[in-house]
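FIELD: query
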Amino acid sequence: MNNIKVAPVKPIIKYEDLDKLDIRVGTILSVEDVEKSDKLVRLTVDFGDHQRKILVGMKKERENPKEIEGKQALFVVNLEPREMMGEKSEGMLFDIGYSDKIIPVLAMPEKPVPNGVRAG
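FIELD: result
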């Protein structure tokens, strides 16, 4: 493992603030290139009762972004939709490492669980 300088812990928040985040498990059905972008790929994610398109800046982070197809991961699903490169992203991949400038990895359940189940 690479040694990193551990970031300081962020300021204390109220327990109720954490409850505002809706983090759910979804299965990544497909990973498609966003042609106009040198960073973005488009994930189609199954959340059990619906699917969403979520744009993720992982094109430069992985040699083959399609390697995550079929994997379950955590997603923040109650963020306001965001337009990037003319496309709407309907959530955010909850990955590990990006903020600390290491190659991010998926935050994923240790074993399969139903799509749409909540974290927390």
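FIELD: remark
Residues 81 and 90 are 5 Å apart (CA to CA).
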